[in-house]
Amino acid sequence: MEKVQEDNLLIRASACLWGGAVGDAMGKATEGYSSAGIFESYGQALEDFVEPIQPLSQFSWQRAEVTEDTRQTVCVAKAIVEEGKVDQLSIAKHLLNCDHKGIGTSSRLFHFMLIKDIGYVADKGSGNGAAMRIAPVGLVNSSSDLERLVEDVYKACIMTHGGKAGIAGAAAMAAAVAAAVEGWPGGYVMIHALKAAKLAERLGHADNLTPVAQQIQVGIDLAIELSGEELISKIGQEIGWGFKACEAVPAALVLATTQLSARDAILAAVNQGGDADAIAGMAGCLASALNPYTLPKKWIEEVQTVNKLDMNALASKLSALRPVHAKVHSELRWMEIGG
Questions:
Q1: Bigger pLDDT: 56 or 187?
Q2: Helix (H, G, I), strand (E, B) or coil at 135
Q3: Is the N or the C terminus of the chain less surrounded, counting Cβ atoms within 10 Å?
Q4: pTM > 0.85: yes or no
Q5: Alpha carbon 217 to chain centroid, angstroms
Q6: Element (H or E) spanning 76, and its range?
């Protein structure tokens, strides 16, 4: 039985990392757009990778290329594997050496790089950057110990995101990932995310934003009442698809736990625009952990080919660091995700 549980966990962990990369790469094509603008530029809703049309970006992007979201996720994962735990200093050093294409020179990370102060605590950073790279922290923590998980989240994000919403959003996403790879169903995953966000609200600087936990509760209520296009429309109206963690994280959580497949969750996020790469990445990683066989293999293969990623190896090493008492709650037959 233990072998079955280990196999299940690795399947979900691998799918989680691949789903995040796929959503990020696909979402780059629609980042900053409105849903109407997507139609104007691409002529239709996206259903696959395309050559990104990003005239306002200072960088050029190729089809299926990941952004800094995935590159920083890999950096966090490698730092954790290297130390055998979530270590702030190690994560900071790996982030300093990360390929920062796409971040921009005004970012907090560049400020952090310039001052080279590992003890630096970002002031009011409450964007999506911490949450979009936090999946590895969820993969090495058990959902049964949210206090420890939140402590690890703080170590992994405080260098660049010091606002309450930034920290709480990252905590919610990490807790959701931890629960999803254990096999909990979507409703329980949302409850774990809500609890972690509430725990994390005691941390960080006040940022004058709607608390993440409050927005997650809005998402839960919407998911109970609505479905399909009506639900997606209401997410946009009552939560938003924006660049703050109090919008993007709850939106991604609702998509991941209500759509029928990882494919559907990713495409739903991609076609709303806004911070599409971050939201599709977070929705993709979580939906793929929940339903690993619903992430199209051809999408994995294209992202793998273009970016030379080895998420299976990272997933295996991260999964080995999880607490021994962590449980897996459902059975899957073994398969190598993306192999």
A1: 187
A2: helix
A3: N
A4: yes
A5: 19
A6: helix 68-83
